[in-house]
Amino acid sequence: MFAARSTDPSRRSLAAAAFAGPAAVLGLITLGAVALLLIWDLFPRRFPPKAHDTLSALPLALIALAWLAHRLKQRPTRTELGRTLVLSAAFLFWAANQFWPDLPQATLLNDLAVALFVIDVWLTMAESQTDKSAVAMKSRT
Question: Residue by residue, what is the 3-state secondary structure of the chain?
Answer without folding.
Answer: CCCCCCCCHHHHHHHHHHCCCHHHHHHHHHHHHHHHHHHHHHCHHHCCCCHHHHHHHHHHHHHHHHHHHHHHHCCCCHHHHHHHHHHHHHHHHHHHHHHCCCCCCHHHHHHHHHHHHHHHHHHHHHHHHHHHHHHHHHHHC
